[in-house]
Amino acid sequence: MTLDKVVGSAREAVADIPSGASLAVGGFGLCGIPMVLIQAILDAGVDGLSIVSNNCGVDDWGLGVLLAERRIAKMTSSYVGENKEFERQYLSGELELELTPQGTLAEKLRAGGSGIAAFFTQTGVGTQVAEGGLPQRYNGDGSIAVASAAKPVQSFEFAGAAREFVLEEAITTDFALVHALRGDRYGNLVFDKSARNFSPLAAMAGRVCIAQVEEIVDVGELDPDAVHLPGIYVDRIIVVGTDIEKRIERRTVRED
């Protein structure tokens, strides 16, 4: 692997992503999404994708553009409420969904990138998250085709009391896609405020991480204390510039 990880185009960066691949994708709503890379995957024509991301964009932006073209077979997400096509595909049995609590999803990605196979958490104990039965895929007639399985629950002495914890397995994926404000040629990345969100965690979980950055700088220009994601986790970088389109999911202005 060369130390200079910059490639010439998004098309080149995603060229080896095959149909049926699994992807971890950074972003929260439409904030910090790697839209140029998502569009390149759409243009490449691959399908049957299993995607891990907090949500699935909206109907015409973000991961929603892949969903609209039936390129996604399964989503692992914590929030799916802003995409009507997502709802339609899920309820009609066209799309599989693994619904995961948001903090648990973040930790599953971090664990995967850290070499931790599984961890215990209190989140979900006493619910279908732990007990199983959450619909993951429906039949066309509305009946449940696939439901989530029960997970191991164990009691631990914690904070002075016996408490129950559910075992959650880590997530790793074939590829990861993230957007960053700035990066150097070795792959060290800096994110912009809330646009960081799930991106470092998604990057860690992917065996091959592809980052789109607004600005590339020479090695040594980034303050090491300012680096949010070390280049060891990043395999390819494309430069998209600062004038790329960034949509706001819900624009709210003050009424005078």
Distance between the termini: 57 Å
Structural class: alpha/beta
CATH topology of the domain at 10-117 and 170-239: Glutaconate Coenzyme A-transferase
Topology pattern, helix = H, strand = E: HEHEHEHEHEHEEEEEEHEE
CATH top-level class of the domain at 10-117 and 170-239: Alpha Beta
GO molecular function, one term: CoA-transferase activity
Protein name: CoA transferase subunit A
Keywords: Transferase
Pfam families: CoA_trans
Descriptive overview:
- The protein has helices at 10-13, 35-44, 64-68, 84-91, 102-114, 128-131, 199-205, and strands at residues 22-25, 49-52, 72-77, 96-99, 118-121, 135-138, 144-147, 153-158, 161-169, 173-184, 189-190, 206-217, 236-239.
- It has 256 residues and is an alpha/beta fold.
- The protein has a domain at 10-117 and 170-239: 3-Layer(aba) Sandwich (Glutaconate Coenzyme A-transferase), CATH 3.40.1080.
- Strands 1, 2, 3, 4, 10, 11, 12 and 13 form an eight-stranded mixed β-sheet that branches. Strands 5-9-8 form a three-stranded antiparallel β-sheet.
- The chain is globular.
